[in-house]
Write a structure and sequence with these properties.
2 helices; 41 strands; 4 domains; mainly beta; Immunoglobulin-like; 5-stranded mixed beta sheet
Length: about 475
C-alpha cells in the first residue's frame, strides 16, 4: 500500500493524475455541440490571388474529444456579395457548402476579387458560426500604366527614334517593380512593326515589332531603341502590362524629305492645383524635313482636345480670358510659347496639343489638375451598424475626403477615435485611435474594429487632421 501511495504522489508531481482525471470525465460517446476555428485567420492576399485554406472543426464545449457525429456535417462558407470579397473554389460564387471529414474538419479555398479592403468570411453550421478576418490588398498589383516619355515623336524615314518609357503603378499610386511591359510598334505584334495604310512603321533591333522590358524600383520600363522603315507616314506604338486593360499609346511619324515636324520643348507633363496656374507655359519647336528651325509660322495650342477626345472627367484648363485655344508664332529658333494657363476647378488628367501650319503631326502635353486642400469629410456605408461584443463590425469604417470643389483628396491623414470609457471598441492591436491616409479616390479605411464587452451605443469619430472637420459613426455593441 505504501508503494501505491508513493506512486500516486509521483503521478501528481508529473501531471499524470490530471490526465487520468480528465479522461475519467469524458463520455465514451461525445457528440459535437460547437464549431471552432482551425486555421486561416487573419489573412492578407493581393487582389485576384488565392488565400490560404480556411479550416473549421467540430468540437464539444466540455473540452473532451468528439467521438461521434463528426463526418458529413454541412458547413456553409460565405463571403460578402459586394465590395471587397472573393469567390470560392468549387462553386465559383461567394458561398460554398463543404461537408466535414472523418476527423470533423472542413476546409474551403477563396480567391480575392479585384476590390481592395477588409472583409469577413463566415462559416456556419448547425453547431454555430465562426468568422475569418481577411484583407484584399492592391499594394504591388498593377492598376495603371502612364507615359513618362514624349507622347509623340518624329524621325526621318530610316532614322532612329528615342526609346519609349512608361511607369507602372498600383492602386495607391506606388510604383510596381518587376512588372513585364510589352512594347508594340504599329499596333501589331508582328510584321516588323508595319503601321498605317501607307506602310509607315518601325522595328526594334533585330527586326521585330514587339519587345518586353521589366520595370525597375521606380516602376519605370524602357523599350529598346527602334528605327523607322523607309516609308513616310504616321503609325502608333503601345505599351501594356498584365492587369491593366487600357494600354498607353504613342503617336509616331516617319518624315519624308522636306516635311516639317513639331515637338515638345522642355516638360511634356505638368500638374497644378485646381484654380492655380501651371508653372510653365507650353513650348514647342518646329523643324523642317532637314532638321532646320522654321520661323514665323502659326502654332495653335488647344486645351482638352488631345488624344482624339475632350478632357477626361471634366478636368480642364484655360488660357487668359477663359479661352481653350490660343495661337502664337514661332521665333527665329522655330520655338513657339503658349500663353500662361490656369487649372479648372475639377481634378483629373487631360491633354493639350500644339499644331502648326504645314505639318500633319502634333505635339501632345499631358496635364493634370490636383485636388486642393482637404475641406470636407463624409462617413461611408458603416455610418450606422452594430456587432456582438467581442466581434468585428461587418462593414469597415471608411470616410471620403474632398476639397472645397468636391474633388477627392489623396494622402489626407484621417484619425479614427473610439471612446475611452463606457461602451466602445478597439482597432487592431487594441488601439483606441488610428490614423489612416486617403487613397487616390479620397477614401480612408480604418483597420478592423472590434466591439467591446460593454453593451450600448457610442460614436467613433473620424477627424480630418489640421482642418477641424469630422464625421461620426453611430455604433452599437449588442448581445
Amino acid at each position: 500500500m505504501r508503494r501505491v501511495a508513493l506512486l500516486l504522489v509521483a503521478l501528481v508531481t508529473i501531471g499524470g493524475p490530471r490526465a487520468v482525471h480528465a479522461a475519467s470525465q469524458c463520455p465514451t460517446t461525445n457528440w459535437p455541440d460547437s464549431l471552432v476555428l482551425a486555421g486561416g485567420t487573419p489573412q492578407i492576399a493581393k487582389v485576384g490571388s488565392q488565400y490560404d485554406s480556411f479550416q473549421v472543426a467540430l468540437a464539444n464545449s466540455n473540452g473532451c474529444p468528439v467521438t461521434a457525429g463528426v463526418a458529413g456535417v454541412p458547413v456553409t462558407f460565405s463571403s460578402p456579395s459586394s465590395g471587397a470579397s472573393g469567390t470560392f473554389a468549387g462553386s465559383g460564387s461567394t458561398s460554398v457548402v463543404v461537408g466535414t471529414n472523418a476527423t470533423g474538419t472542413a476546409a474551403a479555398s477563396l480567391t480575392a476579387n479585384h476590390t481592395a479592403g477588409d472583409f469577413v468570411v463566415v462559416a456556419s453550421s448547425q453547431y454555430g458560426s465562426v468568422s475569418f478576418a481577411l484583407d484584399n490588398t492592391a499594394t504591388g498589383v498593377a492598376t495603371t500604366i502612364v507615359r513618362t516619355s514624349a507622347a509623340t515623336q518624329t524621325a526621318p524615314a530610316d532614322g532612329s527614334y528615342r526609346p519609349l518609357q512608361v511607369r507602372v503603378l498600383d492602386a495607391t499610386g506606388a510604383p510596381v517593380a518587376g512588372a513585364t511591359v510589352t512594347f508594340s510598334l504599329g499596333g501589331s505584334a508582328g510584321g516588323g512593326g508595319g503601321g498605317g495604310a501607307a506602310g509607315a512603321g518601325a522595328s526594334f533591333a533585330g527586326g521585330g515589332g514587339q519587345a518586353t522590358a521589366l520595370t525597375d524600383d521606380t516602376g519605370t520600363a524602357t523599350s529598346p531603341g527602334f528605327s523607322g522603315n523607309g516609308t513616310a507616314g504616321a503609325f502608333t506604338a503601345a505599351a501594356s502590362t498584365m492587369g491593366v486593360t487600357q494600354p498607353v499609346t504613342f503617336a509616331l511619324r516617319n518624315l519624308p524629305g522636306g516635311e516639317s515636324s513639331i515637338a515638345v520643348v522642355g516638360r511634356s507633363e505638368q500638374t497644378a492645383t485646381v484654380g492655380a496656374r501651371f508653372v510653365q507655359a507650353l513650348r514647342v519647336r518646329l523643324l523642317d524635313g532637314g532638321g532646320r528651325p522654321v520661323p514665323d509660322t502659326t502654332v495653335t495650342f488647344s486645351l482638352g482636345a488631345g488624344g482624339g477626345g475632350a478632357s477626361q472627367g471634366g478636368a480642364s484648363a484655360t488660357f487668359a480670358g477663359g479661352a481653350a485655344q490660343a495661337t502664337t508664332m514661332t521665333n527665329s529658333r522655330g520655338i513657339a510659347v503658349s500663353p500662361r494657363l490656369t487649372a479648372g476647378s475639377v481634378s483629373g488628367s487631360f491633354t493639350a496639343t500644339a499644331t502648326a501650319t504645314g505639318t500633319a503631326s502634333e505635339a501632345v502635353f499631358s496635364l493634370r489638375n490636383l485636388a486642393g486642400r482637404p475641406d470636407k469629410i463624409a462617413a461611408g456605408a458603416a455610418a450606422t451598424e452594430s456587432a456582438p461584443a467581442g466581434t468585428a463590425f461587418p462593414v469597415p469604417l471608411a470616410v471620403t475626403v474632398t476639397d472645397k470643389d468636391g474633388n477627392a483628396v489623396a494622402g489626407a491623414p484621417v484619425r479614427f477615435t473610439a471612446p475611452a470609457h463606457g461602451a466602445s471598441g478597439r482597432f487592431a492591436h487594441r488601439r483606441r485611435s488610428v490614423t489612416m491616409r486617403t487613397d487616390a479616390n479620397g477614401v480612408a479605411v480604418a483597420p478592423r474594429f472590434i466591439a467591446g464587452k460593454r453593451q450600448g451605443g457610442y460614436a467613433v469619430v473620424a477627424t480630418l487632421d489640421g482642418v477641424g472637420r469630422s464625421a461620426a459613426f453611430a455604433l452599437s455593441n449588442v448581445t
